[in-house]
Design brief:
heterodimer; A: 348 residues; mainly alpha; four-stranded mixed sheet; 14 helices; 64% helix; elongated; B: 312 residues; alpha/beta; Rossmann fold; Alpha-Beta Plaits; six-stranded mixed sheet; four-stranded antiparallel sheet
């Protein structure tokens, strides 16, 4: 019996093998985002608020100063130290301490009112010293400390890194592979066969999507195992969102690669497209930190919308209708990029 | 050349013109390739051979002129034509990370009625390299794989652009054998080359191309016979000899310049040589260079252009 050949399948397999035989690509797609998550996760891991350094100067009574240091040291917020007078003022002036307490009658608090930590130190020191001097609180108060799961930095970071990875992998894999094929005249050679051009482009996208699931398992699974970042929403919706995002960025990658013939040209364009989104689209910090005036524009960027959708599903357990607007923005970018790329694509 | 296309015509073009920014690469070129023949475009680098063959392959759009392949045109029947042609581009690059077997299988998958990939690999002595990455192949092996990719679609016409450029002698001989075998099976070959020995050895007919035009056309034997000489004497003397006195020598058919040398196409060396030496003696000149060889296509090219093929 004659063997049957399926060009789309062959093209896709070849694309996938080509990718797997590129160790650098494996590193950037799988290892890099996890390393980044681990590094940032540890750098910004939750720890008690830093203690505020304060100085105490024995102006008249050395014993009173020593008692004050002991009192202040019991505060969970303050880190007191005894200073000579001149030395203490120098430390305050250069910002090494936030407050200088001079133990005389009356006691003097020296601090810069524009520094928030100084104001906190002043209130805390005042409170501690007053209580030690015998003040009774008129109104009993009980503090409850709250650390909400899903509100940590790593919870914010993991979906952002997933979004960033979907963008990077989609754009790089398409832009590099297609530009390389054009640069080395492989495209021209393929076009000289009866190959359907759509098969080639489709195989580039399918080849990339084949790595989507492993990529998600590594990142989402890694986030869960290492940092306990749980997916609170539907895994199916998360996968669908990631798939849509991956396809959109394949489209952008194709658009970038549609005409350039050198790798340098393609990487320049890819960086031009991705750099603003790394900064603006809320990967490492919330995009809401940018001024209100630019928020509508930022929200229309594909990575912003994708990150919002991913965070919605992972952190807030949102449902499809609740992230529909973001998904529509992502899809619109994908469809437009594909359409334009196909229109202007250069085969040789 | 007749205007009527018969079913025996494989490739035909008329009045091809292709201009790039500041050069005219192809300048009104006509040619006709008969089915079953091996036709060679011979010329120096930059003569317009590659542009011509790529126009014929439907990869480059000409600025003017008509192209007819197997009785049809690219505009009319491009998709079916692709099934019937095998193409090897100049310095074909294939994906380096794929193996030989994967590459040939990929190309096979594009054709409806191609050949068995394994059989083609065996035929081109690439069987042992099946599992080798393309990037690890030698130049000769890469070129054989390029030809294998052209053959795996079971084409009627094989287009080869500089198939043996840069290959070692052994690889060239092997590739020549493949081309000869393909023709023996009824296939048509159109190739470009700047090696006159390749054209003489492989081609039934040769078109000599220079500055985007065909300057001579015929079988290698016909072309060489236009020199009216079986041998060529090349010489240089000090002081230089003049053309008029060289013309008077018996048996010399039109002396011409080849770089610093005079080239004298002659019937037989025995007839001309004594007279030549006597002429030098008489004129009191000193002979500084003297060689002889059998007339080749190279001499035909030089006779037409005054330049050697390799000089470009």
């Amino acid at each position: 019996m004659r063997e049957r050949y399926y060009p789309l399948l062959e093209l896709t397999l070849c694309r996938a093998k080509e990718f797997l035989r590129e160790p650098e690509a494996i590193f950037w797609v799988f290892a890099f985002p996890v390393l980044l998550a681990v590094a940032l996760g540890f750098a910004f891991r939750e720890k008690g608020p830093d203690k505020i350094p304060v100085g105490v100067v024995a102006a008249e009574d050395a014993a009173a100063a020593n008692r004050a240091v002991a009192t202040l040291a019991r505060s969970p917020v303050l880190l007191p130290r005894l200073y000579e007078a001149a030395e203490g003022r120098e430390a305050l002036r250069t910002g090494r301490i936030s407050l200088l307490v001079e133990m005389r009658t009356p006691a003097v608090f020296r601090f810069d009112e524009t520094r928030p930590d100084s104001r906190i130190a002043r209130l805390e020191a005042d409170n501690a010293l007053q209580q030690a001097a015998g003040r009774k609180d008129a109104l009993p108060i009980q503090s409850e400390k709250v650390t909400e799961k899903g509100s940590r930095y790593i919870d914010f970071l993991v979906p952002g890194l997933l979004g960033m990875n979907l963008m990077g992998t989609g754009i790089w894999s398409l832009a590099f592979s297609v530009t390389n094929a054009r640069n080395r005249k492989i495209l021209k050679r393929l076009v000289a066969t009866p190959m359907h051009r759509s098969h080639y482009l489709l195989s580039q996208i399918l080849g990339r999507l084949g790595f989507l699931i492993p990529e998600m398992i590594v990142l989402v699974g890694g986030g869960w195992l290492i940092f306990g970042v749980a997916v609170r929403g539907s895994l199916l919706l998360l996968t669908a969102t990631a798939l849509l995002g991956a396809m959109t960025f394949c489209g952008l990658g194709l658009l970038i690669a549609s005409r350039v013939s050198t790798i340098e040209g393609a990487s320049g364009l890819a960086n031009l497209v991705m750099m603003p989104m790394w900064l603006l689209s809320g990967v490492f910090f919330s995009s809401e930190r940018f001024p209100d005036a630019v928020q509508p524009a930022i929200n229309l960027l594909p990575l912003t919308a994708l990150n919002q959708a991913l965070r919605g599903v992972i952190i807030e357990a949102r449902s499809l209708p609740e992230i529909a607007v973001q998904l529509a923005i992502v899809a619109a970018w994908g469809v437009t990029s594909f359409a334009v790329a196909l229109k202007i694509f250069r085969w040789r | 050349m007749t205007t009527a296309t018969t079913s025996s015509t494989a490739v035909r073009c008329r009045g091809l013109v292709k201009r790039y920014a500041d050069v005219v690469a192809v300048n009104g070129l006509d040619l006709e390739v008969i089915r079953g023949e091996c036709f060679g475009l011979l010329g120096p680098n930059g003569a317009g051979k590659t542009t011509t063959i790529e126009i014929l392959e439907g990869l480059t759009e000409p600025d003017a002129g008509e192209v007819e392949i197997l009785g049809t045109t690219w505009a009319h029947d491009g998709d079916t034509l692709r099934e019937r042609l095998g193409i090897s581009l100049q310095e074909t690059q294939l994906t380096e990370k794929l193996t030989v077997a994967e590459t040939i299988r990929l190309f096979r998958s594009f054709y409806r009625n191609g050949r068995d990939p394994d059989e083609v690999l065996v035929k081109l002595s690439l069987d042992e390299k099946r599992k080798a990455r393309v990037g690890k192949l030698s130049g000769g092996q890469k070129q054989r794989l390029a030809v294998a990719c052209a053959l795996v679609g079971n084409p009627e016409i094989l287009f080869l652009d500089e198939p043996t450029t840069g290959l070692d002698p052994q690889s060239r001989l092997e590739l020549w054998q493949q081309i000869t075998d393909f023709r023996a099976g009824g296939g048509t070959v159109l190739l470009t080359t700047h090696y006159m020995d390749e054209a003489e050895r492989l081609c039934d007919r040769v078109a000599i191309v220079d500055h985007g035009r065909i300057i001579a056309l015929g079988t290698p034997a016909e072309l060489i016979s236009t020199l009216h000489a079986a041998n060529v004497i090349e010489l240089a003397a000090e002081p230089d000899l003049d053309e008029a006195s060289l013309r008077t020598l018996p048996g010399v058919a039109g002396p011409y310049r080849r770089g610093p040398y005079w080239a004298l196409p002659v019937g037989t060396l025995a007839e001309t040589m004594p007279h030549l030496l006597a002429l030098i003696e008489r004129s009191g000149a000193r002979l500084v260079h003297l060689t002889t060889h059998r007339a080749t296509l190279e001499d035909v090219f030089v006779a037409h252009t005054g330049r050697a093929l390799r000089e470009g």
